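Quick note —
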Amino acid sequence: MGIDRRSFISLVAGGVAGSLFTPVIWKSLDDVSIWTQNWPWIPRLQYGEEAKVPALCKLGADAYGMKVKTVAGRPVAAEGDADHPLSQGGICPLGAASVHMLYSPSRVKNPKLKDGSSFKDISWEEAEDLLAGKLKEAGAGVAMISGDETGSVTDVLAGLVGKAGSDKTFLMPGESAPAAAALAMIGGDGQVGYDIENASYVLLLGADALGSWGNVARNGKAFGASREKGVKFVYAGPAQNGTSAVCDSWVPCAPGTEAVLALGLAAVISAGGRDRASWPGYADFAKFVQSAYAPEKVSEITGVSVDVIKGLAQELVRTGRPLVLTAAGAGQGLGAFEMAAGMSLNLLLERVNTVGGVRILPWSPKVVESAPEKKALLAADLAGYLTSVADGATEAPALLMVHAANPAYAMPNLAKAQAAIDKAGFVVSFSSFMDETAAMADLIMPDCYAFERLDDAYSPYGSGQPNYTVAGSIIKPVYDTKPAGDVILSVAAKAGLELGFETFEDVVKAKAEALGADFDAMVEGTPWLGEEFPAQDLALWATPLKEIPVAAKDGKSLALAPASQLKVGSAKVAIPPFNTNAIRFDEMLGKDMYVLMNGATAKNLGVKKDDAVKLSAAAGECKARVRIFEGVMNDTVVAPLGFGHTAWDDFSRGKGDNVYKLLAAEAEGETGLSRFATARVTVSKA
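Predicted structure written out below.
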């Protein structure tokens, strides 16, 4: 017998109604619900006491205090610490994502030894014995790389290398090293800081202070408070960004020429008629800048009009407490001479070692006897060393130890950096995550994550006041990891290279005592603040005076402006899992990242929106998509750092390309430091 459409609908409706009114289905569903809720793998909420515990955020280039909310002792969220001088209640995108990273799928859960093309699990005792044996074999052929320039673990690791008889101790690239070298050029000695909070006019020469430069949380708070007092902020750089958007004005300035603009401003100010003849070094400096950096020449190099140059100079002179911050747009890569240009401009304005100006902070106290002094550590150039090893000019280390750093991803001359790591006899990574360097290592001894260990930070670069923060562990290690500081001390003892301390806590207590700080109070959340600013006998940058090299325009290539965004990571960490949702539609298309150029530049290249392109430089190549943005200068392409990971996890791996492949490091002859803030690239359709 057939059935028509109306009969079919009636049958179905009747069946549904019958099912709804019978008790059988509801009893079955109730049984299924009870049954499934008893499965052992179903996650269960944990309830308990809520608390806010002091912690440190060191996922970016800075270090600042924050608060971590815990429930039943487990971290659930992070927020700013209103009582910490470097956050004042603020938090950066990486700090906000820090709890997510505790449970990241890229965590290394236990010690691992390279076994062919993969890793095998080993015990901590095996790992420590193996490293102790390698230390004995390597002797003076040991080297280290650290990405934590504020913490005492670096002191312990550098002390171990020094005790072994080696001076191959390196920090990842940053701006502390060129800033210290620039300060030395004017006769200073110490860490460079900036008293943004007390300035009355702030000129940001390339410094993306609210996006990625220095301590972003602190900068944002200082900016907000200064706006209420009528402080003027001016940003000079090749493209509009989050910082320029809220400043009083944006001065378009070609990538890598911000230091040239600083000397152009110095030329105008020094020609203003004020008698400075008695100033040490002034006569030579004034003669140099007025001849080499006349406004017309500076305008041609930077793209900043003569009128704007003169107007900025007048504003700086008229303002009571001006402050000039010179930096690379990506927060790294400037040479010491470029830093010296900004430093000399501040000195010309009488704004060095004064309230609201550049502050000179004392170096952190040295407590590990065999470790190098901090300024010696900063003077060692990692990019040059790795390049020399790759080229065969320097012997590869027999043992290379890497802590809180990812040089296989975040270095200029990247291909050579990777080749140098590959040439090392035995590579040890202390990384908490399976990053690119850990993936290349022979042995991984995973450090506890930030919330699982004791940690400290002394005056990160840019701090306007000496400060020291200590944070204790919040939670027991989630996995089979150990604090790197304690592991290094244990291995040192096994290798017969005792460093004078049994535990890392002893090291931190010794540093606190050297500063006159209360260790217990700091662990409970009260940072130490110093008031000492060493007296300095400064002179204007008189020797060696020379022009800053600028890549010439050739009509075929574009100036590359690398840009850093903390939401997609830093030189230390990749994209935090939840932060993938913060990547906008105009930042990525599928798995391709966007690079930015204006319409006129795109037209000259014959490309349009969403076109796939290849960026080529002497150092390497990158692929991307084109986004048209009129807030970029002509003949300039802005490319984001933070993409292009080949390790980590599915949240980071395979998204975009690695712009570090385009950056070539060039050594300054006088300082030996590498500069790589920008590059010239050709752009073609992919």
